[in-house]
From TrEMBL:
It comes from the Bacteria. Pfam families: PIG-L. It comes from Haloechinothrix alba. InterPro entries: GlcNAc_PI_deacetylase-related, LmbE-like_dom_sf. This is N-acetylglucosaminyl deacetylase, LmbE family. GO terms for molecular function: hydrolase activity, acting on carbon-nitrogen (but not peptide) bonds, in linear amides. GO terms for biological process: glycoside metabolic process. The keyword Zinc applies. The keyword Mitochondrion does not apply. Keywords: Zinc.
């Protein structure tokens, strides 16, 4: 991450596709808050309900609770459309089914920008990434092309979902190959508040990830130093 360009601003609608509740809050929500304040629309699509994310709680109880926390979290940053798929938390596969589900959402919402999680093997700093993140990120990139091809998943045409090839970029948050950034100095407090909305999930964590302000501030300050502002959020921008 030696140099970062500013993220494009000539777009109006984005679809954010991630694996779990809290994935967007641990990185991208500050940028999303800025974009919604500027009048852009952002829709969330989550592959799971995060039901396997709390060790002390049965999935049948954790799933609905984490869904409620995600809805509250999204509202903090100006997002009122949150959709959940039914893929199993912790064991998501990069499958045709997942690609189809994401392509369906892309055709329905017709975004210009698609935001996703880091699909690389590691996080910045070298820490190992988990399979759910990698598989959802990679499937999202594939699904963008699937959404624009009439003959991939042709059954979607029967649902009156015409191909959409208007996605111009995929932006992978917190990638070790980050190329772009957004100044989130003015929306950082909303980023912290949106992560704090995952109250039950945070209560089961230890260390720095259980402290939203410290975790997010440390990350945003390091990106900001490179980008030339106080606090920033990084993305790997892939042109489609």
């Amino acid at each position: 991450m030696t140099e970062l360009a500013a993220m494009p601003t000539d777009w109006n609608k984005a679809l954010a596709v991630v694996a779990h509740p809290d994935d967007l809050e641990y990185g991208a929500s500050g940028a999303i808050a800025r974009w919604t304040e500027e009048g852009r629309e952002v829709v969330y699509l989550l592959a799971t309900r995060g039901e396997a994310g709390i060790d002390s709680m049965e999935p049948s109880e954790a799933g609905p609770l984490r869904e409620r926390e995600q809805l509250a979290s999204a509202a903090v940053v100006g997002v009122d459309k949150v959709e959940f798929l039914e893929h199993p938390d912790g064991v998501i596969e990069h499958s045709l089914e997942l690609r189809k589900d994401i392509a369906t959402a892309i055709r329905r919402h017709q975004p210009e920008l698609v935001i996703t999680t880091n699909h690389r093997e590691t996080w910045p700093g070298g820490f190992q990434n988990m399979a759910d993140h990698r598989n959802v990120g990679a499937a999202t990139i594939d699904a963008v092309r699937d959404a624009g091809n009439r003959w991939v998943f042709p059954e979607l045409l029967e649902q009156e979902l015409e191909p959409w090839d208007g996605v111009r970029w995929v932006a992978a948050n917190s990638s070790p190959n980050a190329s772009h950034a957004v100044d989130i100095t003015d929306t950082f407090d909303k980023a912290v508040e949106s992560l704090q909305a995952h109250e039950t999930y945070l209560a089961g964590l230890r260390g720095v990830m259980a402290d939203p302000d410290t975790f997010l501030r440390t990350m945003a300050e390091s990106v900001g130093k490179i980008f030339g502002c106080e606090l920033a959020c990084s993305f790997e921008l892939i042109e489609m």
